[in-house]
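Tokens for Cytochrome C oxidase subunit IV. Go.
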Amino acid sequence: MVNQHNNEGSMVKHRHRHEGPQKHVVAFIFSIVLTAIAFATVAAGGVNTAFTVILLIAMAILQVLVQLGYWMHLKDKGHMIPIIFMAGGFFVAGLCIIAALYWMWW
């Protein structure tokens, strides 16, 4: 980000650096690789069920982080409020899931 001041100092212009497509291409390839790993694990068929579930959850979490970071631009500066609200939403959703599981098995 570049700040430019005129002679009076009253006007400030903000310019954002253009990232270019390189980071988006890398994020897209990483997303494809994560999807391929998850698909191959399920398609193999002979893999332990517990391992498959854990691997799928891990791939899903990584996929969400890539999507939020690169496609939704949450890695950029100035996106703390959306991150806080999403973290709060994940916290509430986690509490609801824990409460539902507790309610079903108690």
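DSSP finds three helices and two strands in the chain.
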